[in-house]
């Protein structure tokens, strides 16, 4: 059993969940890539090589690496978990009334590792009928052979977005895009039934079931320490979702939230695409982000109330410093022209993952940013990302930290 705890973005990383890209990536096509939120199709074998290097670097710095698909497979060995997931994914709404009993009976008999792969990779009509031939169904008869009865979840690659450990609890996030909403079911099952988590006694701030109109995504959530959380109000995280999460976090002991009002663009979809914490009171930040308006949220006097203070754009860094209880924020912005800065931001130059204070993992392709951060005293561990980056996510996005050492240890 684990005792999850994340009280900063920079404490030495002890346990992290990642997802090695698999068969789900082979479902990406030029026609559906936009719907599935990718900029291009991936070369799977190379993406797996790059991800294996990411895992190797994490382990080399002492982190226990947990693979999402393995956790899901182990969870599916538990009858209650299997019933929960199959009931949610293979409902009559999705499979149709006529085919539902046969499909459910087949799924109940599938070995857990194969079922975990199917729930992530999806299954086509043709693949299904190879397993259960002769099913009479108007739904299936209306589908072409390569149509997907269960859609793929290629964005599980970005494990942080759907699951955010915040101090002593976890938020299973409500995802804003349809292509990602089923991801939360897998995390709910894992955190409810997997032996590593089932008896943990941790609070679940949100279980992923709320309306997308209250969306929050983990790429916008950074646990900066001192009882404070930094949250981006972005293309994917809405103000209503931030306020809802704030009431739960405040009830659980979080002291303050600083919400950053971002531009709603694909290139800057989450806060961690423009800034991440890399050391004590220190952030790396994309030059083109500029100074942005912020809101300081604190618990109100009555239960469930939230006090909101609006801060002007020029006070952005001061608001974050105040939440951290320090006089001044250190912001590291690579000195380069605007075109070079935009290219490196697009390639996740600011999307770094700290494995210890001042020790970060980045994509090797962002040469200017990596050289600058090294010159400023950071230890920069680079990984390849030519294929992994096609979904617009870097090391920070591809990691769901579960346990970090407290900063005072």
UniProtKB/TrEMBL annotation:
Keyword annotations for this protein, in alphabetical order, are: Arginine metabolism, Cytoplasm, Hydrolase
Any Gene Ontology biological process? L-arginine deiminase pathway
Per its UniProt record, what InterPro entries does this chain match? Arg_deiminase
Single Gene Ontology MF annotation = arginine deiminase activity
Which reaction does this chain catalyze?
Answer: L-arginine + H2O = L-citrulline + NH4(+)
Q: In which pathway does it act?
A: Amino-acid degradation; L-arginine degradation via ADI pathway; carbamoyl phosphate from L-arginine: step 1/2
Q: Tell me the active site.
A: 397 (amidino-cysteine intermediate)
Kindly name one Pfam family recorded for this protein.
ADI
Name a GO CC annotation attached to this entry. Answer: cytoplasm
**Per the UniProt record, which EC number(s) apply here?**
3.5.3.6
Locations listed in the record = Cytoplasm
Cross-referenced HAMAP family: Arg_deiminase (MF_00242)
Q: Which family does it belong to?
A: Belongs to the arginine deiminase family.
- What is this protein called in UniProt? Arginine deiminase
- Gene symbol of the encoding locus: arcA
């Amino acid at each position: 059993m684990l005792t999850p705890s994340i009280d900063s973005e920079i404490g030495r990383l002890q346990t992290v969940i990642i997802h090695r890209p698999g068969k789900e990536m082979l479902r990406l096509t030029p026609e559906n890539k936009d719907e599935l939120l990718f900029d291009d199709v991936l070369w799977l074998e190379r993406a797996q090589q790059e991800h294996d290097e990411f895992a190797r670097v994490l382990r080399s710095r002492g982190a226990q690496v947990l693979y999402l698909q393995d956790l899901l497979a182990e969870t599916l060995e538990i009858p209650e978990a299997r019933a929960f997931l199959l009931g949610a994914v293979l409902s009559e709404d999705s499979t149709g009334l006529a085919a539902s009993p046969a499909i459910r009976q087949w799924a109940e008999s599938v070995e857990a590792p194969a079922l975990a792969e199917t729930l992530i990779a999806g299954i086509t009509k043709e693949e299904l009928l190879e397993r259960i031939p002769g099913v009479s169904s108007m739904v299936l008869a209306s589908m072409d052979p390569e149509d997907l009865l269960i859609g793929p979840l290629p964005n599980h690659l970005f494990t942080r977005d759907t699951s955010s450990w915040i101090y002593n609890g976890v938020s299973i996030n409500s995802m804003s895009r349809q292509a990602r909403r089923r991801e939360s079911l897998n995390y709910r099952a894992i955190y409810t039934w997997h032996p590593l988590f089932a008896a943990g006694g941790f609070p679940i701030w949100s279980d992923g079931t709320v309306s997308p109109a209250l969306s929050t995504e983990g790429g916008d959530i950074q646990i900066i320490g001192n009882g404070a959380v930094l949250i981006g109000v972005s293309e994917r995280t809405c103000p209503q979702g931030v306020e809802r999460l704030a009431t739960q976090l405040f009830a659980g002991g979080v002291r303050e939230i600083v919400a950053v009002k971002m531009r709603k663009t694909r290139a800057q979809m989450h806060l961690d695409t423009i800034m991440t914490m890399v050391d004590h009171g220190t952030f790396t930040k994309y030059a083109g982000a500029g100074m942005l308006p912020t809101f300081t949220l604190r618990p109100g006097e009555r239960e469930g109330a939230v006090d909101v203070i609006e801060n002007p754009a020029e006070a952005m860094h001061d608001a974050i410093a105040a939440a951290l209880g320090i006089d001044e924020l250190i912001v590291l912005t690579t000195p380069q022209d605007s075109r070079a800065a935009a290219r490196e931001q697009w390639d996740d130059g600011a999307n770094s993952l700290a494995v210890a204070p001042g020790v970060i993992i980045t994509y090797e392709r962002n040469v200017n940013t990596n050289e600058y951060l090294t010159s400023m005293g950071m230890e920069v561990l680079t990984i390849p990302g030519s294929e992994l980056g096609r979904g617009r996510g870097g090391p920070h996005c591809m990691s769901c930290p579960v346990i970090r050492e407290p900063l005072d240890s």
